[in-house]
């Protein structure tokens, strides 16, 4: 005996789809697929923009962080800055870490010592 496919239903209530609902479902799916395609294209464009910035000598990591901060509202940015400073203070001096050595060298405070 051939196995038959169950009738399509909406959500958890198990009601069968009417022709109008099937048409709406198809439209929703088509719209979502179009948006996902646009998102992939935009993501690709953003990647190309970062590559161009890198080719011009800019740090893409710094650009990403700057853009993230520019997109924050003032209160969110102030909170983030406060949190970072609190964490930095809690960690104490970082002069014995590779990060601390690099910062000190960059600022001209000390010659970089090899990290242990």
- The structural class is mainly alpha
Helical content (DSSP H or I, runs of 4+): 55-70%
Number of strands: 2
The SSE string, one letter per element, is EEHHHH
The shape is elongated
Mean pLDDT: 86
Separation of the first and last Cα atoms: 74 Å
What report would you give on this structure?
The protein is mainly alpha-helical and 116 residues long. It folds into two domains: 48 residues; 39 residues, no CATH class. Helix content is 66%, strand content 3%. It has a two-stranded antiparallel sheet. It is elongated. The N and C termini lie far apart (74 Å).
Q: Layout of SSEs?
A:
Layout: E1 9-10, E2 15-16, H1 19-55, H2 60-70, H3 74-91, H4 98-107
Antiparallel strand pairs: 1-2
Short description:
The chain contains four helices and two strands.
Features:
elongated, 2 domains, two-stranded antiparallel ribbon, 4 helices, mainly alpha, 2 strands, 116 residues
